[in-house]
Specification:
The protein is mainly beta and 155 residues long. It contains no helices and 15 strands. Strands 5, 7, 8, 11, 12 and 14 form a six-stranded antiparallel sheet that branches. β2 and β3 form a beta hairpin.
Length: 155
């Protein structure tokens, strides 16, 4: 039967072993295993360009803008996690993931990272980047609380 160790606090490690009972008595105890409670959801701690800023800094020779985000902890990032929109032109942005290396090849499914860098060619105008919460989770399966949206203007 399931066991619910409801007395744990976040970050606390508990150690467990199990045995079985039947008509012949108790079995030998299993190996001891440990588990640490982690209910803290990951967050995005910083972005570049910063929210509300204006940038004219295109990376040459690729002629694209650089953008990045840093997470509060290592997260598992699943393909489809990002949307980029030019609000001025009402059009999607072209973008290429520049780091980590696991995200740069075609057909990737997911990877573990503490930050993500992208090159984007949104055109000129007001740009909105949306990081979709259900595509980002930590190793304890905690997702971002909600979509993370930041905006900047390109010149």
């Amino acid at each position: 039967s399931p066991y619910d160790d409801s007395g744990l606090t976040n970050g606390q490690t508990a150690y467990y072993s199990v045995s079985a009972y039947n008509d012949n008595g108790e079995s030998a105890k299993s190996k001891i295993v440990s588990a640490t409670l982690d209910t803290i959801k990951p967050t995005i701690t910083s972005v570049f360009p910063t929210n509300g800023s204006t940038t004219a800094n295109k990376i040459q020779p690729i002629n694209m803008y650089s953008a990045s985000m840093i997470f509060s902890e290592n997260v598992i990032i699943t393909e489809g996690f990002l949307e980029c929109k030019n609000l001025t032109m009402n059009a999607d942005c072209n973008f290429v993931i520049s780091s980590p290396a696991g995200l740069t090849s075609p057909g990737w499914a997911s990877t573990n990272a503490s930050s993500v860098g992208i090159y984007t060619d949104p055109g000129l105008g007001d740009i909105r980047i949306t990081v979709k919460y259900n595509f980002i989770k930590d190793v304890s399966n905690n997702n971002l609380t909600e979509d993370y949206i930041w905006s900047f203007t390109t010149q």
